[in-house]
Prior knowledge:
The protein is about 40% helix and about 25% strand. The chain is of the alpha/beta class. The chain is elongated, with a radius of gyration of 18 Å.
Amino acid sequence: MKYLLVEDNHELANAICSRIKLDGHVIDHTDKLEDAIAFSDTGEYDLILLDIMLPDGDGRSFLKHHRDLKKDTPIIVLTARSQVSDRISILDLGADDYVTKPFDHAELDARCRAVLRRKSGATQPIIKFGDVTFSPLAGQLSINGKIVNLRNRELRLFELLLNARGQIFSKQKLVDRLFAFDEDVSDNAIEVYVGRLRKHLESTSLKISTHRGLGYRLDND
């Protein structure tokens, strides 16, 4: 998963980023409204964590802008405002959920999982495809009932391809989804991860096909 965190409290932001990275996810962080809009307009995220009170504006304007563009990325608002009317206005603008500061990080984790399940429409967070079983929340891949140990980015690459079966992903698109904005990554890194993943899938009906000049696609033989 790739997250965008918009939060100007750097101590809190560092704690959130560290926790999300430990779970194997990728996260971009900014403390400015202007940068948040630029990130979301040019990149793709699975989940956005949005503070309301920002140095250069109100986070609700980001929320409105994002929804006006018909983007359905789940957004959880991080707010210090406890008034019911404030929370209602946030939800009416298109937020999927909110967490009132101060909050326990375990609660934030649970709310992230909940909105991601709702986004995917999954009541049972298990994906079965051929002889492969994948649990996104547990980060666990099984082949013919045997658990396969994948590195974090191999796991996220598989999840990305599996959730968009039949769609071709260019190398640059995969770089954008698997790495943070400030990471220096070459296209060759994608080739390495694809190669490793192919080896794991050799005995299955799933194959990662190469489309010259276009990218990669997950197919089922």
